[in-house]
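Encode chain A's predicted structure.
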Amino acid sequence: MDVKNAFLHEELDREIYMNQPMGFQSQGYPKYVCKLRKALNRLKQAPRAWYGKIVEFLTQSVYSRAPADSSLFVKANGGKLAIVLVYIDDLIITGDDVEEICRTKENLSVCFQMKELGQLKHFLGLEVDRTQEWIFLCQQKYAKDLLKKFGMLECKPISTPMEQNAKMCAHEGKDLNDATMYQQLVGSFLYLTSTRLNISYAVGVMSRYMQKPKKPHLDAVRRILRYVKDTIDFGLMYKKGEDCKLVGYCDANYARDHDTHRSTTGYVFMLGSGAISWCSKRQPTVSLSTTEVEYRAAAMAAQKSTWLIRLMNDLHQLVDYDIPLYCDNQSAVRWRRIQSFMQGQNMWKCIIILLGKRFWKKRLR
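Encoded structure for chain A:
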């Protein structure tokens, strides 16, 4: 559902003044200002005023705001759920409580000027296709528009978004006369990663050179466009009947940033057959070993899993099991086991045990 003129008639909780609009200045009082009685479009306080209004309505309708996400509202009734997701003036309403959903839609239409858009098919560039067996999310139209906008609709496709072992540096190559195109491309790619986790790493690397891009950086970004052309119908599929349990995978590359020698963290969480959360981000500090890099990546993924557990619990999908987090670095895994062991033991006792194990290994050799 869409709210018509959501920002125009909201009550303000503070005094706000504005200059007299052009063409409507008072002849008798040209230096006076206008005191606003209600919100206006482009007013900084208007979104906050609208959010307060919709929160008040949903709270009165016995919806509870999810602590993990302030735009998510859930109402549980006898084992059934009604869920409302608020994005500015657009609302997504879902759940298995059909009666409550119909009641919420009717009440919204009474309190606000609403436009019902029917079943969810397009939302902010996202395309939703569903059957009885699966739900498929993609951004195919957005990707086509992106290729058309930058004149790459007829480009030659390529099978990888980035060259293997590509070395990107901030100071190598010819300066671009105008960095606008590069910045627009990377900004468009950042939104495309909403459903395309396969370009997250490449886009994350190229976003580091937004301020002063070089010719090799522009060539690398165009390569991502060619890869998007080759995989334009890719997306996320969630199949019915899969075991809906959270599973995480994490990895990291060691000192691949040639300018800062920092490493990059990558992780993805799967729920059933599809990914629901992923990240590719440069680490904030320089690590001194691959073990430290991988352990930082696992710690970052563990933080995300904590938030996902809270979100699932808010949706009344209780996570009463340990979430497996897979890491391919044995040293990082063993270091975590040592830490878990040390947490339940006296520190000096742990040191003596570890030294004793090391001594007997040497003797056996």
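The chain has a mean pLDDT of 86.
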